[in-house]
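Q: How do we represent a protein-ligand complex in a form that can be generated token by token?
A: Start from the inputs.
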Amino acid sequence: MALRRRLEDRLRRVLHAFNFREVQTPTFEELELFEKKAGAGVRDEIYEFKDKSGRELCLRPELTLPVMRFYFGSQLKVEPKPLRLFYFGPCYRYDRPQAGRYREFWQVGVELVGDASPEAHAELLWLALQVFEASGLSKIVLRVGHLAILRSLIESMLGVLPTDQGPLMRLIDKKDLEGIKAHLAGRTDAKRVEEFLSFFELGDLEAAKKAFPGSPRTQEAYDQLARVMARLDGFGADATKLRFDPTIARGLEYYTGLVFELDCPDLGAEKQLLGGGEYDLSAVFDATPEPTVGFALGFDRTLVALEKTGKLPEVRDRVDVLVAALSEKGTPAAQRIANALRELDLRVELDLSGRGPKRALQRGSAVKAKCAVLLGEREIDRGVAALKNLDTGEQVEVPTSEVAARLQPWVVAN
Ligand code: HAM
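Then emit the structure tokens for the protein with histidyl-adenosine monophosphate bound:
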């Protein structure tokens, strides 16, 4: 947990710097919320149950739908836009567990409500990059695509109308090339399928635009992407970490336009650390349109990536001071000194077992204390305490009233 908290702190600091405010929703929701909008891939993975009064509930598989349910049903709705919300919480998916894929996992996510302009997208993509920068993970690739481009490619190259594209989108989301071929066999000319798949290799926006100019809507999507990339450049984003990827389909059904995913290439199958895009869930809640952009990252998977690449944060789990009473007589002074040091926010272990100085110092090393305060009969009789810096070995005697002041530099130094 110390490790998890340290990563959490780093991520929270970035979210705070970008002025995102935290929201929290219950771990269970009405099943209907996800049945309506999550998409078949996620619906199959839901943990569902009935409560004692027969209500159909589920453990949330993600947090975008719950957060937007909360948003549309609360005073947040009338707050000035854009609204920057973030969350950190457990999600549940009934999936086959493997390295980096769990049935219970934590997501950190953000929703930028009321603005889906290229500037809003660029801010979120920059935030995603900054979040991983802060986590310590530098080997990442952020892929950006657009559903309008993908959908029009599918329609014009493969002749599959938007209303029938669901199953194919799920295969594309899984990058299941054999599955795509099998799905299209007999329906679409094999050469067209190959041509479509070759489009998957295009990592350059300009090249893609030339190879497949598409309809005016597709052109608009290319222009939006180009503008987002230009804005990202303005933030100082490292271009080597960015790719255009026309094949991002996303497993969730609510996305409408620009979509993105971030991978750690060093991981195997479960290399996707973050996913997100543009959506508008106002229709689900009978509200006026509210374009929104958001993303979520897999917290546990990020830890796996940090471990695999040797970048786990260092856990500073040291005790500041061990205060030990070496005999009954030293106990009241030890208690007083421990109280005073704890008031100063120091992390103190108090040892009232009355064991001798050697065993007390052994305990100090075992808990990685930075220093020790020893109170034996001899010290008490003279109104002093013995202090030992456990890192340098330095030892001094000071009046009990001066313990805190004398220890301060030793504690701060480490
Ligand atoms: P998602 O892509 O389904 O998107 O999940 C986001 C991230 O959660 C994934 O990239 C992955 O790192 C992590 N994740 C997903 N499933 C598991 C699992 N079984 N075990 C461990 N980690 C997992 C969403 O959930 C959207 N709500 C993101 C979003 C926010 N879109 C807009 N706003």
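Residues 216-235 form the longest helix (20 residues). Residues 144 and 364 are 52 Å apart (CA to CA).
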